[in-house]
Design a protein that fits this description.
Blueprint lengths: L2 E4 L10 E4 L8 E5 L4 H21 L3 E6 L2 E7 L5 H6 L9 H11 L8 E5 L5 H8 L3 E6 L4 H7 L8 E5 L8 E6 L2 E6 L22 H15 L6 E5 L2 E6 L5 H17 L3 H4 L9 H11 L4 H7 L15 H8 L5 E5 L7 H7 L3 E6 L6 H10 L3 E4 L8
Parallel strand pairs: 6-7, 7-8, 13-14, 14-15
Antiparallel strand pairs: 1-2, 3-8, 4-5, 4-6, 9-10, 11-12, 11-13
Helix pairs in contact: 1-6, 3-4, 4-5, 7-12
Length: 391
């Protein structure tokens, strides 16, 4: 197919809308089910670039969960711990490497992944499709689908779930263009390859960068490459645990992503794992309830007596002291930034969420202060020399 007409653009009033190749060539993708929209395709193509690059950089299956042209989460297909199985609602499920990649990507920020676009680096198999069937999601892009997986996905959303297959060998033109306010912008496609060598310029006194941290930093940097700037990404054990996107201030980015990383950690607190939900509660309602429970407003909810709608037993409050102590146990976290840290305050905030490894471009007039702050906490920091803005 050379052109695919869409219902409308970003908003219902933006018509006509379509996707096509400027040179008149065939589109490198096929819609196998549903009717993806303009934003769906923006999510699909950005997320596909991310998982394809992750697979190339690490050799591992990769998945992403996208919302509004930025990843809510991204992950590699590594084994799930028992705790991860519980907090991602995957306990007892039959999984595969690509299924685990998506489960972890979705689990990074389950609240923000509600109604996401899923992307897989590998063929979608039955275990992945079965997990997706239980989640609220708008669509998926992958290089292929098994017959069993496609049959499952076609039953989702009353048969309207969006399923897109992309040619894994497709490479974009070296020049890309877009129109803004009737004016055409042109730039070279961002083909910069993020690989292990990018982490070799370690500027801190501590230069011990283990292989797992290298993988995590690559995951962080590749996630940032396809995240709306300014952006900061926290990663732990092959999955993002906090992504801060589209902030005007670097420190706000670091705080936003750090707060998401803290929430990811709090979901593993024994009190959270011990919550007793009412029978038949829907997965999104359970996610929302957990988010409220670990928030600062939960004591007010308890006072209002709303807990009976969600829990079998009135939960014991998770106190501020308990939260602080639990988050303080975080360690071995990696952090990437799409542009330099202008002040050491970003490092100070990152430390509070267990960050031990940092990759950022460098180039600030206060690099010395940033390095000094990292050295104060024994962190390892690499200067990549490459900005990763994405707009």
């Amino acid at each position: 197919m050379k052109e695919l007409e869409l219902k409308y653009g970003c908003n219902p009033n933006q018509k006509p809308a379509a996707i096509y190749m400027e040179d008149g060539a065939e589109l490198p993708l096929t819609v196998l089910n549903g009717k993806p929209g303009y934003i769906n395709f923006m999510d699909a193509l950005n997320s596909w670039q991310l998982v394809k690059a992750l697979k190339k950089a690490t050799g591992l299956p990769a998945a992403a969960s996208f919302k509004h042209v930025s990843p809510a989460g991204a992950a590699l297909g590594l084994p799930l711990t028992e705790t991860e199985q519980k907090i991602y609602f995957a306990d007892g499920l039959d999984t595969s490497p690509i299924a685990r990649a998506y489960i972890k990507a979705r689990g990074a920020d389950r609240l923000c992944s509600y109604g996401d676009w899923a992307a897989l680096s590998d063929v979608c198999d039955e275990p992945t499709a079965r997990f997706l069937a239980m989640e609220v999601s708008d669509g998926i892009i992958a290089p292929g689908y098994t017959d069993e997986a496609l049959a499952i996905l076609k039953t989702k959303k009353k048969g309207n779930y969006n399923v897109v297959q992309i040619d894994p060998d497709y490479e974009p033109a070296p020049i890309e263009r877009r129109n803004i306010y009737g004016i055409t912008f042109q730039q070279g496609y961002n083909s910069f390859e993020i690989n292990d060598a990018l982490l070799d310029n370690i500027v801190t006194r501590n230069k011990q960068l283990p292989q797992q941290a290298r993988h995590d930093l690559l995951l962080a940097l590749l996630t940032l490459k396809y995240t709306q700037s300014n952006s900061v990404c926290y990663v732990k054990d092959g999955q993002t645990i906090g992504v801060g996107a589209g902030q005007q201030s670097r420190i706000h980015c670091t705080r936003l992503a750090g707060s998401k990383a803290d929430n990811w950690m709090l979901r593993q607190h024994p009190k959270v794992l011990g919550l007793q939900f009412v029978d038949g509660i829907r997965r999104p309602n359970r996610d929302n309830a957990i988010d409220v429970y670990i928030s600062d407003e939960y004591e007010d909810v308890l006072a209002e007596g709303v807990w009976q709608q969600t829990f079998k037993v009135k939960p014991e409050v998770l106190t501020q002291e308990e939260k602080k102590a639990w988050i303080a146990t975080m360690s071995g976290v990696s952090l990437g930034s799409d542009a330099f840290f202008p002040f050491g305050d970003n490092v100070e905030r990152a430390r509070k969420s267990g960050v031990a490894y940092i990759a950022q471009p460098g180039g600030s007039i206060r690099d010395d202060n940033v390095i000094e702050t990292a050295d104060k906490y024994g962190m390892v920091m690499s200067f990549t020399g490459m900005r990763l803005f994405h707009h």
